[in-house]
Amino acid sequence: MFPLSRFKSLSLVVVSLVAAAGVAAARTPDTPAVRVHLSVFNNAGIPADTLAQAATRASAILAQSGVELDWLGCARPDPANFSQRVTPCSVVGWPHQLSVRILPHGRSVGADIFGEAFLDESGRGVYANVYYNNLAANREHTQLSDGDMLGFVIAHEVGHLLLGSNSHSPSGLMQGRWDSAALHSALRHTLFFTDAQSATLRTRLYSGDLTPSHSVLLSRISP
Fold first, then answer.
1. How is 21-38 classified by DSSP, letter by letter?
2. Could you tell me the domains of the chain?
3. CA 47 to chain centre
4. What is the DSSP string of 195-223?
5. CA-CA distance, 164 to 160, in Å (whole number)?
6. Could you tell me whether strands 177-178 and 127-131 are parallel, antiparallel, or unpaired per DSSP bridges?
7. DSSP assignment letter at 90
């Protein structure tokens, strides 16, 4: 067993910024897909084929819940460019426009932390980090490629951004710790959101279609 996120002492992490079952149902004609745009910044400089594999895996996981993922590959920012030009990669708004940054490692997280999702006081978030070197160095998923594992981690963090606070579950993709059974499901490509989580994802995204995008203002508090 190894930890994936951290919510307080847990580890794929939800960092709440104000306070410290079953397989997901497949899409049917009665559950039309909703869409999420995901800006992905490859600050870790991982190979293009690994990133493509991650995009395929994350997209398949969300599609299983009736959510279409538009993956937007974003260039690493130029530190010498101080312009504030708005680009498709810089636009965020809950729930349909989210951002994930793939970093080599975190400055203040342990080696067993693979990702963090940042939420505001309402339990909504648009930003998440994934720590690629931590993921790649872990030897408990040796039968899974780093690209597939990265896709599972990204889907998990997107789940936190959309599902909100306290969204870890005892089974499925949103487990706070993935044991050997979860990894076996991942290897068989059957590690998904639960039925209840899939319904919540669609409900939140449908409701987002009817209201203006929610601006998320973050002020980090250490867990």
1. --PPPPP-TTS--EEEEE
2. 10-77+86-209 (3.40.390)
3. 19
4. HHHHHHHHHHHHHHHHSPPBPP-------
5. 5
6. unpaired
7. G
State the Cα–Cα distance between residues 95 and 125, nearest whole angstrom: 8
Count Cβ atoms within 10 A of the Cβ of residue 86 and give its class: 0-12 exposed, 13-18 middle, 19 or more buried.
exposed
- Express each pLDDT in 174-192 by its tens digit: 999 888 889 899 999 999 9
| CA separation for the pair 100, 142 (Å, rounded) | 24
CA distance 41 to 76: 6
**pTM listed for this prediction:** 0.82
- Total residues found in the chain within this entry: 223
Query: 220 with 17: CB under 8 angstroms?
Result: yes
Distance CA 61, CA 141 (A): 18
Residue pair 167/10 in contact (Cβ under 8 Å)? The answer is no
Rounded CA gap, 48 and 37, in Å?
Answer: 19
**Taking the mean position of all CA atoms in its chain, how far away is CA 172?**
14
Angle CA 9–14–16, to nearest 5: 90
Measure the CA–CA gap between 14 and 119, rounded to whole angstroms.
8
HSE of 204 in the Cβ direction (CA atoms, 13 Å)? 23
Asked whether 153 and 115 are in contact (CB, 8 A), the reply is: yes
Taking only Cα atoms into account, the Rg of the chain, rounded to an integer number of angstroms, comes to: 16
pLDDT digits (tens, 9 = 90+) for 109-144: 888 899 999 999 999 999 999 999 999 998 888 889
